[in-house]
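User
Here is a favour to ask of a fellow structure person. I am asking you to supply a protein in sequence and C-alpha coordinate form. Please set it down just below, with no commentary around it:

Assistant
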Amino acid sequence: MTEKDMQAKYMEFQMIQQSMQQLQQRKQIIENQMTEFTTLIETLDGLKGAKKASPIFAPLGSGVFAKATLEENDNVLVNIGSGIAIERDIATSKELVKKQLVELQDLAKQLDAEVKEGIEKGTKLSAELSKAAATQQQEHVHDENCAHDHKH
Protein backbone atom coordinates (compact mmCIF):
# COMPACT_ATOMS: atom_id res chain seq x y z
CA MET A 1 0.00 0.00 0.00
CA THR A 2 1.44 3.36 -1.01
CA GLU A 3 1.76 6.32 1.33
CA LYS A 4 -1.03 8.04 -0.61
CA ASP A 5 -3.31 4.99 -0.20
CA MET A 6 -2.58 4.94 3.53
CA GLN A 7 -3.45 8.62 3.85
CA ALA A 8 -6.72 8.06 1.98
CA LYS A 9 -7.62 5.10 4.21
CA TYR A 10 -6.73 7.07 7.33
CA MET A 11 -8.97 9.95 6.21
CA GLU A 12 -11.77 7.45 5.56
CA PHE A 13 -11.20 5.99 9.04
CA GLN A 14 -11.46 9.47 10.59
CA MET A 15 -14.68 10.16 8.66
CA ILE A 16 -16.17 6.90 9.94
CA GLN A 17 -15.23 7.84 13.52
CA GLN A 18 -16.86 11.24 13.11
CA SER A 19 -19.96 9.65 11.62
CA MET A 20 -20.15 7.21 14.56
CA GLN A 21 -20.07 10.11 17.01
CA GLN A 22 -22.91 11.85 15.15
CA LEU A 23 -24.97 8.64 15.08
CA GLN A 24 -24.43 8.16 18.82
CA GLN A 25 -25.59 11.74 19.47
CA ARG A 26 -28.71 11.20 17.35
CA LYS A 27 -29.42 7.94 19.18
CA GLN A 28 -29.12 9.71 22.54
CA ILE A 29 -31.65 12.33 21.42
CA ILE A 30 -34.02 9.59 20.26
CA GLU A 31 -33.62 7.70 23.54
CA ASN A 32 -34.45 10.90 25.44
CA GLN A 33 -37.59 11.35 23.33
CA MET A 34 -38.56 7.72 23.95
CA THR A 35 -38.24 8.26 27.70
CA GLU A 36 -40.35 11.40 27.43
CA PHE A 37 -43.06 9.56 25.48
CA THR A 38 -43.08 6.67 27.96
CA THR A 39 -43.52 9.15 30.80
CA LEU A 40 -46.30 10.88 28.84
CA ILE A 41 -48.18 7.60 28.44
CA GLU A 42 -47.95 7.01 32.20
CA THR A 43 -49.12 10.59 32.86
CA LEU A 44 -52.11 10.15 30.55
CA ASP A 45 -53.04 6.97 32.44
CA GLY A 46 -52.79 8.89 35.71
CA LEU A 47 -54.86 11.77 34.39
CA LYS A 48 -57.67 9.44 33.43
CA GLY A 49 -57.95 8.30 37.05
CA ALA A 50 -57.65 11.78 38.59
CA LYS A 51 -60.70 13.48 40.07
CA LYS A 52 -61.99 16.70 38.57
CA ALA A 53 -61.14 19.83 40.60
CA SER A 54 -58.06 18.11 42.10
CA PRO A 55 -54.87 20.21 42.31
CA ILE A 56 -52.22 19.54 39.67
CA PHE A 57 -48.94 21.05 38.55
CA ALA A 58 -49.14 22.13 34.91
CA PRO A 59 -45.79 22.22 33.08
CA LEU A 60 -44.88 25.59 31.59
CA GLY A 61 -41.60 24.38 30.07
CA SER A 62 -37.94 23.89 31.05
CA GLY A 63 -38.87 22.24 34.35
CA VAL A 64 -41.14 25.09 35.49
CA PHE A 65 -44.66 24.25 36.73
CA ALA A 66 -47.74 26.22 37.74
CA LYS A 67 -50.20 25.08 40.36
CA ALA A 68 -53.59 24.53 38.70
CA THR A 69 -56.91 22.77 39.15
CA LEU A 70 -57.96 19.89 36.91
CA GLU A 71 -61.17 20.90 35.15
CA GLU A 72 -61.44 17.97 32.76
CA ASN A 73 -59.91 14.50 32.77
CA ASP A 74 -61.46 13.08 29.59
CA ASN A 75 -59.73 15.18 26.92
CA VAL A 76 -56.36 16.82 26.36
CA LEU A 77 -54.99 19.28 23.83
CA VAL A 78 -52.59 17.74 21.32
CA ASN A 79 -50.13 19.86 19.36
CA ILE A 80 -50.44 18.91 15.69
CA GLY A 81 -47.74 21.31 14.50
CA SER A 82 -47.40 24.96 13.49
CA GLY A 83 -48.63 26.01 16.93
CA ILE A 84 -52.02 24.37 16.37
CA ALA A 85 -53.52 22.19 19.11
CA ILE A 86 -56.66 20.11 18.86
CA GLU A 87 -58.74 18.46 21.55
CA ARG A 88 -58.51 14.66 21.70
CA ASP A 89 -59.77 12.11 24.17
CA ILE A 90 -57.11 10.48 26.34
CA ALA A 91 -57.33 7.05 24.67
CA THR A 92 -56.79 8.55 21.19
CA SER A 93 -53.96 10.72 22.47
CA LYS A 94 -52.32 7.74 24.13
CA GLU A 95 -52.51 5.71 20.91
CA LEU A 96 -50.94 8.59 18.99
CA VAL A 97 -48.05 8.74 21.49
CA LYS A 98 -47.63 4.94 21.36
CA LYS A 99 -47.44 5.10 17.55
CA GLN A 100 -44.77 7.80 17.76
CA LEU A 101 -42.89 5.72 20.33
CA VAL A 102 -42.86 2.71 17.98
CA GLU A 103 -41.54 4.95 15.18
CA LEU A 104 -38.75 6.15 17.47
CA GLN A 105 -37.91 2.57 18.45
CA ASP A 106 -37.67 1.64 14.76
CA LEU A 107 -35.41 4.64 14.14
CA ALA A 108 -33.22 3.63 17.11
CA LYS A 109 -32.87 0.11 15.65
CA GLN A 110 -31.91 1.59 12.28
CA LEU A 111 -29.27 3.79 13.96
CA ASP A 112 -27.94 0.76 15.85
CA ALA A 113 -27.53 -1.07 12.54
CA GLU A 114 -25.70 1.92 11.03
CA VAL A 115 -23.41 2.13 14.07
CA LYS A 116 -22.65 -1.61 13.84
CA GLU A 117 -21.85 -1.26 10.13
CA GLY A 118 -19.61 1.72 10.85
CA ILE A 119 -17.77 -0.12 13.61
CA GLU A 120 -17.18 -3.07 11.28
CA LYS A 121 -15.82 -0.76 8.54
CA GLY A 122 -13.68 1.12 11.05
CA THR A 123 -12.27 -2.10 12.50
CA LYS A 124 -11.43 -3.39 9.01
CA LEU A 125 -9.76 -0.10 8.03
CA SER A 126 -7.81 0.01 11.28
CA ALA A 127 -6.50 -3.51 10.68
CA GLU A 128 -5.54 -2.63 7.09
CA LEU A 129 -3.72 0.50 8.26
CA SER A 130 -1.87 -1.37 11.01
CA LYS A 131 -0.81 -4.11 8.59
CA ALA A 132 0.29 -1.59 5.97
CA ALA A 133 2.26 0.43 8.53
CA ALA A 134 4.02 -2.71 9.78
CA THR A 135 4.84 -3.81 6.23
CA GLN A 136 6.08 -0.36 5.31
CA GLN A 137 8.30 -0.24 8.39
CA GLN A 138 9.83 -3.62 7.52
CA GLU A 139 10.42 -2.60 3.89
CA HIS A 140 11.97 0.76 4.76
CA VAL A 141 15.60 1.07 3.68
CA HIS A 142 17.86 3.37 5.67
CA ASP A 143 19.99 5.40 3.27
CA GLU A 144 20.97 9.00 2.61
CA ASN A 145 17.44 9.75 1.27
CA CYS A 146 15.74 8.91 4.61
CA ALA A 147 13.81 11.75 6.15
CA HIS A 148 14.21 10.63 9.78
CA ASP A 149 17.06 10.44 12.30
CA HIS A 150 19.29 7.35 12.08
CA LYS A 151 20.22 6.96 15.75
CA HIS A 152 20.45 3.28 16.68
